[in-house]
Structure formats: C-alpha cells, structure tokens
Amino acid sequence: MASYDVIIIGSGPGGYVCAIRCAQLGLKTACVEGRDTLGGTCLNVGCIPSKALLHASHQLHEAEHNFAKMGLKGKSPSVDWAQMQAYKDEVIGQNTKGIEFLFKKNKVDWIKGWAKITSAGKVEVGEETHTAKSIVIASGSEASSLPGVEVDEKVVVTSTGALSLPKVPKRLAVIGAGVIGLELGSVYARLGAEVTVLEYLDQITPGLDTEIARSFRSLLKKQGLEIITGAAVQGTEALKTKAKVSYTLRKDDSEHQLDADVVLVATGRKPFTKGLGLDALGVETTKHGQIATDAGYKTSLAGVYAIGDAIEGPMLAHKAEDEGMAVAEILAGQKGHVNYDVIPGVIYTHPEVASVGQTEDQLKEAGRAYKAGKFSFMGNGRAKANFAADGFVKILADAETDRILGGHILGPAAGDLIHEICVAMEFGAAAEDLARTCHAHPTYSEAVREAALACGDGPIHS
Ligand code: NAD
C-alpha cells in the first residue's frame, strides 16, 4: 500500500498525459493500468496501429497508381500481411515503451492491475489498497454493441479485431460510416478487399459539414468503397469463416443480405467503467451513461475527477489529453481550462478530412450571417505535383466582423493543416489575418490562405 497526491485510473492519452503533468507540477503521482502495456486504446488498439496500416496501405496505393506516372517503373509491391502486422506491432511497441520511459523520467508510479474505487481516496488494485488525496478516472471507452450482432473478434469484429485479422479479407462488410468504419474500410480497400459500408443515416460521417461529407463520399466511391446509406442493420449471422449481414433499406423497407468474410462493427463507442465500483459509490452518470462531471471535472464523489471518453464530449484522444492537463493544473492549484469550441476532428483516410469549429449547417441553423471562402487543391501547385489535388479548404467567417467561425478541409495533410485555423481561432483571428500572413510556396498550406482570401477580395489561383 502506498499513498499519493493523485492516482489516475487508466493510461490512455487522457490518463498518461494527466499523470505526467501532475508529476511535473510536483504531485506524487501513480497511474493504474491493467493492460500489459501503457497507452490505452489509442496506442495499443486504436489511433496508432490504425495509422501504421493506413500509412502502409497508402504506400501500396501510391506504388500501384502513381509511381509509373512519375517515371518510377518496376514490379508493383505485393502485400506481405505478416510483415505489415509486424511493422504495426513494432510501432505500437515503440510508442507504449515511450510512455513507460516518460513515466520513469517523471517519477510516475505504474500500478499494474485493474482499479476499483472502494471509497473516496481509496483505490484497490488486486490485493492492495492505495490511498490518494485525489483520484482521476481516465478509463476510456469500449465499442458499443448492436442488437442482433454478436462480436466474436474473428468473423464479426470491432476495430480491435480488425487491426489484427489473420489475413486481408476478400469481402469486408462495415457497419457504420463513421470515423472507424471509413478509416479501416479504406485501409482494407487499398489492400485489395471488396468493401461495403452500411450506414443507417442518409449521410456518412454525421456531424461533418455536409458539403465536405458529400465530396468525401464521392472520393471514397472513386477509391472503390461501396457505401449504402439509409441501411438499418438487423443482425449478423456468423458462420465459421464468413458472415451474413441482414439490413433493411429505410426508404422502402426492402430486406437485403450481404455476404462477407469479415464484418466490422463500427457504430460508436461507450464509456468503459466496468469494475470501477462507481455504482456502489453512487457516482452520478448522464443519461448517455457517461460519468457526470462539473466544469472542473469533479464527479459527484468528493475528490474523484473524470476525463476523456468516460465523460461527455467528443471521444477524441486529444480532447482527453487536454482534459488531463487541465485536471492536473486544477489539482496543483492552478486554473485548468479546455476550449471546447476549438477542438479539431480528423479522419485519417487519403485524402484526410479535418474540421474545427462550426459547420455551415450549424451556422445556417443558428441563422448566423457568415461568409464561406473556399479553395480547391486543384489550384495548389504542390498538391498537383504530388497527385493530391482532390478536395478543398473551406473557411467560415462572420459576415460582419470576418472572425473565423470554422474551418473544414478535405485534402492532403488536412489533419496537419487544420491547426493553422485552430490557432487563428484561439487568437480570435479574422479570415483577413490568415490571408495577410505570408505562406511558404509551394506548400499545401497555401490552400488555407487562399480559402481565407476567398472570404475577402478573392483567391488568386482559382
Ligand atoms: P462514429 O460515431 O464515428 O460513427 C458511427 C456510425 O455508425 C455513425 O455514422 C452512425 O450513424 C452509424 N450507425 C449507428 N448504428 C448503426 C446501425 N445500426 N446500422 C448502420 N449504421 C449505424 O463511431 P465509430 O466510427 O465507431 O468511432 C467511435 C468513436 O471513436 C467516435 O467517437 C470517434 O470519434 C472515435 N474515433 C476517432 C478517430 C479519429 O479521431 N480519427 C478514430 C477512431 C475512432
């Protein structure tokens, strides 16, 4: 048994960042993690491994489609799945060991095992009980279930199983055209699978700016993904090595079946709080099953805080990280704060999709007068040279003040480009501020500047 200033439960991006910052601010800190490695879903079975597969499959796509055009001739590479998995595992290992190193460097104790809060200030892990002045729950999320769909992580899989399939399936059915479904669906499509995505709503990627979502959908179609919207999945039937998905089309209630070798269920995630003992302690939850917190991340139990996927808000690693930093600062007597108006969202497909702030749909619904400045990557020299001219940048600015209200990018490196707009928004910048900032040529970021110019007197290259 040991006593700490802070015990953090969970070592995902929310938990480990919180732990490191707590230690840096002088608090005696421990982090409880039950997995064999640190880093949570993100590093072990989420963001990081999926990015390795996205990168590898994109390289294959480049070799198959663009190398010859650039004068790079020769036999196209073929997929060595075992090696690709080994590469992915190597990347995971480097990252999870990196967190272990950072814990040691910052003197954060890793308590190995699954935590249960037995009372305010007491955390039981296995046979031991540890005490802390404050406890931070950063226990993350797990895939939600769908009625009639039984996940076996072999034939019917969540993202976890989809990252470690024994081979590239011939036919992959994906339930849900959200972030996971489209990222992993496009990986397997590039690796040669026939991919069909079934989406309940009439649009893919709910919440995304509609214009971006429509263009994104047509690009995915060009890449060979079949996307069926308005499809209500009724259930799956798993046979030994394949499965059937039954669905009805909402427009006419017609019934359909889809055969696949693997079915990926990607219909959202829910907070993971199993075993924490929260029910017994009467910790309040929201109607969506998230741990309820106040603006300072306090739960209804004194001295217990919660952050990340386990509480309200977008389930994003970077949102959890920022909350982890904020709680650490609050516990150290400072003023922690997260600006929820400026949290970027990125879909790591090719091209990427990134957005921040308000969508055009939201501005229309709010009746707000706005300007939309758009610029296509077709007018960007660097994008053309790199065979990456699909997509566009859209900046939304207040019609009167020119203050940037939102930014949406479908295109190359969108996930990096978006941060220029995020910083501008944090500083309350006007579109003209971006437009008047010198941007290096030739870069993709010139497309952001041109979209800002389009909010004023107009872009130069379109
Ligand atoms: P999601 O919420 O992004 O998408 C789920 C999709 O499934 C939605 O489009 C929804 O309409 C659809 N759906 C729900 N029920 C359905 C049904 N019965 N039949 C057909 N379609 C149905 O969820 P996700 O893709 O599972 O991701 C889970 C969470 O993880 C999200 O919060 C996401 O933001 C996060 N995540 C983020 C990233 C990233 O930032 N790049 C990557 C992976 C996951």
UniProtKB/TrEMBL annotation:
Pyridine nucleotide-disulphide oxidoreductase dimerisation domain residues: 343-452
Catalytic activities: N(6)-[(R)-dihydrolipoyl]-L-lysyl-[protein] + NAD(+) = N(6)-[(R)-lipoyl]-L-lysyl-[protein] + NADH + H(+)
Domain FAD/NAD(P)-binding, chain residue ranges per copy: 4-324
Presence of keyword Flavoprotein: yes
InterPro entries (alphabetical): Class-I_Pyr_Nuc-Dis_Oxidored, FAD/NAD-bd_sf, FAD/NAD-binding_dom, FAD/NAD-linked_Rdtase_dimer_sf, Lipoamide_DH, Pyr_nuc-diS_OxRdtase, Pyr_nucl-diS_OxRdtase_dimer, Pyr_OxRdtase_I_AS
UniProt entry tagged with the keyword Oxidoreductase: yes
Family (UniProt): Belongs to the class-I pyridine nucleotide-disulfide oxidoreductase family.
Leftover remarks: The active site is a redox-active disulfide bond.
Name this polypeptide is given: Dihydrolipoyl dehydrogenase
Organism: Rhodovulum iodosum
